[in-house]
Write a structure and sequence with these properties.
It comes from Occultella gossypii. It is an enzyme of class 3 (hydrolase). This is Succinyl-diaminopimelate desuccinylase. Keywords: Hydrolase, Metal-binding. With about 375 residues, the chain is α+β, with helices and mostly antiparallel strands. About 30% of the residues lie in helices and about 25% in strands. The strands form four sheets. It has an eight-stranded mixed sheet with strand order 1-2-6-3-7-16-8-15, with helices on both faces. β1 and β2 form a beta hairpin. α1 packs across α3, α3 crosses α9 and α7 crosses α9. The chain starts with 16 loop residues before the first helix and ends with a helix.
């Protein structure tokens, strides 16, 4: 059987960043199925003589080696959540009359990927050395994350003085990110025939108290270094039952806790255990958040350069992003990209065309500005950490 022909992306030398965004979005890449898009990204990057390219699984990296005083990482994930009848993309008209691009991935986060890929191809001599990272498996379990894999397999490629995640921020700058954990709240009962229910104990009925506590729960708003992070504790799954004529002996409510970056995962889990005291609580997975770090000199430089173009302001990132991973590596990082984060994962994802273009201009302006101190050698950067 013949292999399908590889999908190709338009050349940024002759196509604008919006056309590139649409082409990237129209290559389906639900988590675990990023291969075709990664192949297309790799092929485009390898056509640029100013870039050194590395492929690791379905993660593609490229970098300049110009001997600049500072190296920065621009990263974005290639995968999306499942498609819900929202591909191929469509060009639509916004209520204000401006054009927008509608479809899966336009917000989270192929708009940011397109901005990065466009600049990787069209800025052969930036004022800073740049490492571009396009990675897989961000929307699923943390142990599958392509960026985390690169940390283990090619850490020297991530050596940098500063990092930017192209996550959607509506063109503003979002510092840090919330931490996240999932926990199973388990109730226990006794099986019996449903015609003689009094002989058993129904575990699903006991889950009503779990849901009641969630309904009464008031999430906190926590000030961390001048930015206010909203927390959240929500049921995201429930399972139980054996057969249609049996009393269930177990029910599991899975909860997701989004906690402020001032708390550790251990502290966050302790809070969940406190909320559900008297229940059987098991930690499923957890990832630490990241403090804003907007007072770091590299972050200040980025904010000044970008906001001069966008007019945006800094705010908190409510979701978890790989800013936390860079923070663990000792690299200050921020979130910056097109798309309203409130539309991330929504079936009606859509991004204003002007926002894609503005983010591209802002990032280009920052990257084109040289710095006078720092390190240009990737290995030196890794040793510094």
């Amino acid at each position: 059987m013949l292999e399908p022909a590889p999908v190709r992306l338009p050349d940024p030398a002759i196509a604008d960043v919006v056309a590139l965004t649409r082409a990237i979005c129209d290559i389906p890449s639900v988590s675990g199925d990023e291969r075709a898009l990664a192949d297309a990204v790799e092929a485009l990057l390898r056509s640029a003589p100013h870039l050194e390219v590395l492929r690791d699984g379905d993660t593609v990296l490229a970098r300049t080696r110009l001997g600049r005083a500072q190296r920065v990482v621009i990263a974005g994930h290639l995968d999306t959540v499942p498609i819900q009848g929202n591909l191929p993309t469509q060009l639509r008209t916004a209520p204000d009359g401006g054009p927008l691009l509608w479809g899966r991935g336009t917000v989270d986060m192929k708009g940011g990927v397109a901005v990065a890929l466009y600049l990787a191809m069209t800025l052969p001599e930036p004022g800073k050395d740049v490492t571009w990272v396009f990675y897989d498996h961000e929307e699923v379990e943390a142990d599958l994350n392509g960026l985390g894999r690169v940390v283990r397999t090619h850490p020297e490629w991530l050596a940098a003085d500063f990092a930017v995640l192209g996550e959607p921020t509506a063109g503003g700058i979002e510092g840090g990110c919330n931490g996240t954990l999932r926990a199973d709240i388990r109730t226990h009962g006794t099986t019996a025939h449903s015609a003689r229910a009094w002989k058993g104990h129904n575990a699903i009925h006991d889950a009503a108290e779990v849901l009641h506590r969630l309904a009464r729960y008031t999430p906190a708003e926590v000030d961390v270094d001048g930015l206010v992070y909203r927390e959240g504790l929500n049921a995201v799954a429930i399972s139980g039952g054996i057969a249609g004529n049996m009393i269930p002996d177990e029910c599991v409510v899975t909860v997701n806790y989004r906690f402020a970056p001032s708390a550790t995962p251990e502290q966050a889990f302790a809070h969940v255990q406190e909320v559900f005291d008297s229940f059987d609580v098991t930690l499923v997975d957890a990832a630490a958040g990241a403090r804003p770090g907007l007072n770091h000199p590299a972050a200040v430089d980025f904010l000044q350069a970008v906001t001069a173009v966008t007019g945006g302001v800094a705010g908190p990132k409510y979701g978890w992003t790989d800013v936390a991973r860079f923070t663990e590596l000792g690299i200050p990082a921020v979130n910056f990209g097109p798309g309203d984060p409130m539309l991330a994962h929504a079936d009606d994802e859509q991004v204003a065309v002007d926002e894609i273009s503005t983010c591209t201009r802002a990032l280009a302006a920052w990257l084109s500005t040289p710095v006078t101190s720092g390190h240009d050698d990737a290995q030196d950067g890794m040793e510094r950490r």
